[in-house]
Design brief:
mainly beta, 2 helices
Amino acid sequence: MGGDFSRLRFQPDRHFAAVLLQQGRVLLDSDWNEAESIREHRQRMLIRDLLGTAAFVGDGFALSARGEKVTIGAGHAWIDGLLCELATDTDSVAQPGLPSARLPTEPGTYVAYLEVWQREVTATEDETLREPALGGPDTTVRLATVAQVRYHRVPGHARRSRADWSVPTEATDATLAVHGRYEGVENRLYRVEIHEGGAQPTFKWSRDNGSTVAALRSWTATELRLRSAQPLFAPGDRLEVIDRASLLDRRPGPFIGVDQVDGDRVVVSSDDEPIPERLVDPVVRRWDARPAPLREGRANERSELGDGLEISVEGSRFRSGDYWLIAARTADRSVTWPDATEADDPRPPHGIEVQRSGLAALRRDRVGWTVLRDLRRLLRG
């Protein structure tokens, strides 16, 4: 989920060490958040320098197999400076951070790896983040580290060659640039996000970082019931239906259009994408446009964001969920990146940053799973 931020502007190459408040000045969310980003950056750099890109402690995330069952060991690890924790021994298909987890069924040799990334958690997803004394409004957003055990089949007789046990990569070469001068009447934080990746990518965008979100109490093919009666949506709005499983799997959800709004009741268009019958903690997220094809690799072709702004995209590999943040200001009609001053300078995605580390080489045959080798790099005491 995207937080309701004014802008994010942490720039590692400027080497700021701290943010210092001045007396009698306005305190901005961007100052607070930059201070936290500086602290986290320094901490992660230190941990990487001391422990390397991956270090496992004891049985943390060690895999063991018995028949058709693969168990993930309780403990913790440091991946690219991020702390990953598992409270108890966990069945691989019952991971709290990956509700859609399934074990492969095809016989063969596999590499199991830990995939680590961070996501924002708002009070819409976790009601305990609200302070009841305030009467309902949310205040802050949490940043959560997600650690997921995944499997990749290795061709041939991989157990004979350690080189074949390398973790698969999921790189992107996408870049985005912004053109024009901002002509809107409000300060905005645009979010441009890849909806469907792959060979025919699409994108969606929001003027408020995709922060307008509501939890669902119930739903049918033509009607939603929200947990809140606050007037978040209006006829003509475009909503994406997502749940905890799709969020953690970084999969897009179906889009629907709003026809009518009456308190917590939202009537949706009957000719939209179908809403799945089974959803886990579902929410709806407002975007300012339905997913549209990316016009990548074509000379002088641009996609409109409105208010005088256009974007151009280059690349051949796009990942669903990757996003760019663009701050637009009315005072000087400027448009800036978090990490650059010129918005027409093509930039790679600002997220999602995904790290991977090998856990084990395994073989599956007709009698079940066998662990061939532990691939973790252990931190010795």
